[in-house]
Amino acid sequence: MSENKSQLINFAMNSGLVVGVFWVIKYFFVIAATGYPFLGYINTLLSIGTPLLLFFFLVRYKNFVVGEEKIGFWHGIQFSVMLFFFASLLEAIIVIVHIVWLDPAYLSRTFEQTLALVESMSADQNMISKLKQQPIPTPFSYTLGMIMGNLLIGFFLSLFLVPLANRFTFKNDNRQLEE
């Protein structure tokens, strides 16, 4: 099976655009949850859409671009991580807009809520005091951490979904790319 890197990147970018738009819509519920806390639950509920979208795009990539019955395990992981990278870039834009211009106090408020949660648990006082000494994350470090977290999630999801995607075929997707 030969890999065409330009098709891999192109399909990952296009699929990442769709997943990124989905994540932006999900993130609007995070923004709205500051005023209406129940909307945070909708954001959590929508999280099930991410593995479903990844599975859908893995099967489409396997059928449409690769054109074979099976996609290589590492090839599928590479596609998944690239898809999550491109989706994360789109989500990062809305996150930066939110924490820099719309709600600059969001990071400090979230940090304080995390401290309160750790204190409410029976955690070691030494750990709590070290956590209190930590600086509040900057918008850049927060966004970079979010991107890295998304890439890690994409990697781990692909470990399970690539073998599963090899078992499925969409009936309408058995066409080859025209060159």
What do these coordinates show?
The chain has 179 residues and is mainly alpha-helical. The mean pLDDT is 89. It contains seven helices and no strands. α1 (5-33) packs antiparallel against α2 (39-46), α1 packs parallel to α4 (73-102) and α3 (49-66) crosses α7 (139-165).
Relevant terms:
179 residues; elongated; mainly alpha
Distance between the termini: 18 Å
Helix/strand/pairing class, anyone?
A: mainly alpha
Sketch the topology as an H/E string, one letter per element.
HHHHHHH
Strand proportion: under 5%
Query: Which regions contain 5 or more consecutive residues with pLDDT less than 50?
Result: none
Helix content: over 70%
Quick recap:
This protein has 179 residues and is mainly alpha-helical. It has seven helices and no strands.
